[in-house]
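Help needed: design a sequence for this.
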């Protein structure tokens, strides 16, 4: 909690969008967010405060309260087209790096690891039924 008290309110608000950008990046499609990706993001966020590093419990509690709103808002603001959406999202995530640096090396490193973990989780949840039930083995070029 004390980490977030050391940054400006606008920086805190931007940082609270971090999980939404990560989830949207993980399920990025030409036409925007689909229901499978949205459900995976919301389900994952509901358990996050209980499974996260104690350093982030306060952050996740706050982020979880507004996650669905942020996902919808950001998704609606992004243009259609996978490449354009991805470029904008990565640019926005880049703006968060200076804020993370203000919070300290340990906080930033832990946040990066956690966001990568979330991206991996949501990406896996977003894969098609075909991959998991018809082709349960990994096949390079088809399922990887």
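Sure. Designed sequence:
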């Amino acid at each position: 909690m004390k980490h977030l008290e050391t940054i400006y309110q606008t920086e805190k608000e931007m940082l609270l969008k971090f999980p939404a950008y990560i989830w949207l990046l993980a399920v990025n499609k030409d036409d925007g967010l689909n229901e499978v990706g949205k459900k995976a993001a919301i389900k994952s966020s509901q358990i996050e405060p209980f499974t996260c590093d104690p350093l982030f419990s306060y952050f996740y509690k706050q982020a979880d309260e507004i996650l669905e709103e942020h996902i919808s808002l950001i998704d609606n603001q992004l243009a259609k087209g996978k490449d354009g959406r991805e470029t904008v999202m990565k640019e926005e995530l880049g703006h968060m790096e200076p804020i993370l640096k203000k919070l300290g090396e340990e906080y930033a490193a832990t946040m990066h690891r956690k966001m990568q973990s979330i991206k991996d989780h949501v990406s896996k949840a977003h894969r098609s039924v075909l991959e998991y039930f018809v082709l349960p083995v990994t096949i390079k070029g088809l399922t990887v």
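The CA atoms of residues 85 and 101 lie 25 Å apart.
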